[in-house]
Amino acid sequence: FAQMLRGFPRHLSQHPGGFVISRGPLAELVPIENAAMPERTVIQWDKDDLEALGLLKVDVLGLGMLSVIRRALDFVGRKMHEVPPEDTAVYAMIHKADTVGVFQIESRAQMSMLPRLKPENFYDLVIEVAIVRPGPIQGGMVHPYLRRRRGQEPVTYPRAAVEQVLGRTLGVPIFQEQVMQLAMVAAGFTPGEADRLRRSMAAWKKRGGLEHFEGKLKDGMQRHGYSADFADALYRQILGFGEYGFPESHAASFALLVYVSSWLKCHHPAAFCAALLNSQPMGFYAPAQLVQDARRHGVVIRPPDVNVSEWDCALEGPAVRLGLRMVGALAEAAGKKIAAGKPYMSVHELGLNRKDLRALAAGGALQSLAGHRRLAHWAAAGSARRAPLDAPSLESLPHLPAPGEGAEIVADYASLGLTLGRHPLALLRSRLRRMRLMDSSGLRELPHGASVAVAGLVTCRQRPDTASGVVFVTLEDESGNVNVVVWRHLVERQRRELLGARLLGVHGRIERDGEVVHLVAQRLVDHSALLGPLATASRDFH
């Protein structure tokens, strides 16, 4: 019975972006039930059943980057079709993996691949999107492709028919369609058999089913004159695609968004930053990292202010003005009311409840009405208690000393999740230096194999399924980012430090591959106590 049940659905789930189109009413063709969301219905069949019936299923992806691109293009007064193609400055930026915030190629894996693959044109971006996937990685396609691209390995094809299929990818199958085409031209599969192979590749991890293709593939290739080694290699690659590979059309669609978002970051960094902030939460990086990256690119970021800010982040000439949406605990209705009613002469004139006034004071958004944070908290408390005629004026506020730099940074992170002051580690640098912990800028000059110790705020942890238990950690300091590799044995030995630290010290060795630099961890130290009450957070992916 267990074998009979294998592959059956375990629970009901809904594809959030799948829409089915038919000529007549769907209710006459397939069973439909009400979804949990009002006014929505769900077809009880899966995609394979629908395909067998001949119905058209369209996946409409609700990508956050689409909103970012629309907002950024609105800022600069351009349309997507007006973005100039094949801009050399854009590709130069991509070569350096300067891609924080860019669609798809902002992940650690993609950033490590960019300086190796060095995309030169749009089709290279299509390959870049597709090659950093479990399928090509598990199928062993990545390193052969890179070696051939660099001229370190000859590009050869066993037959001209294979060259027609794999010519654009240097003899290495990277897309799902190529595997299907190879099965037809090299093993004699019919189009129907190749399509069944595609379905089995997509489902073999759950239901099996690839095994009965192995003999047919290998026998067919040998009958057509291909070597047993070639047949074995192709079958291993097919098994790899069972881990998830991209169709070429999908990769091309994503590559377009990669290019447009890269163009915006390259030529309009302020607009791109504002659009990213207005589209949160999304992507690999929190607002603190997006703002730090924009400032490193020369973008001026101005704080939220009730007399200047809109609800959303906006452009002030070449600068970005943070919107009131960035102020933690401020109600959206209150923020939009403030933006619509400005300017104001006093805190009381805002007409807000105590909670919203406290939020504005904590976020430093009352600077133009009350001065620094302590005065703002005093004014907010007084305004919430008094009747309109008793509202305190700026002159009546007490002479409270301004908070120190450290206190301001702590307050910034508590309210905004970021700071426009100095990076927190800039304040700790002298102490970290005494602990023999260097900053990230020094890593770029170190040779392969050099021993080093660094410390940084943990901004991202990634543990991909295909990485055999390895965890990739991104650390941030006042100079930039450090890419840390934590091997499985160290993950198991120092899990508490790895998962619990906000300020993580890493002792390890430099691993350099051309322009790609990683720090391979040998020992982890939790230095979070040095941060005191500073509240930082990381984005973790498993």
Tell me what the structure shows.
The protein is an alpha+beta fold and 542 residues long. It has 24 helices and 13 strands. It has 4 domains: 58 residues, no CATH class; 186 residues, no CATH class; 117 residues, no CATH class; 118 residues, Beta Barrel (OB fold (Dihydrolipoamide Acetyltransferase, E2P)), CATH 2.40.50. The protein is 44% helix and 13% strand. A 5-stranded mixed beta barrel has the order 8-9-10-12-11. It has a 3-stranded mixed sheet with strand order 5-7-6. A two-stranded antiparallel ribbon has the order 1-4. It is globular and about 95 Å long. The relative contact order is 0.08. The mean pLDDT is 91.
Q: How much is the average pLDDT? A: 91
SS class: alpha+beta
Instruction: Summarize the main sheet.
Output: 5 strands, mixed, barrel
Number of helices: 24
Radius of gyration: 28 Å
Strand content: 5-15%
Overall 3D shape: globular
Helix content: 40-55%
Q: How would you concisely characterize the structure shown here?
A:
With 542 residues, this protein is α+β, with helices and mostly antiparallel strands. Helices cover 44% and strands 13% of the residues.
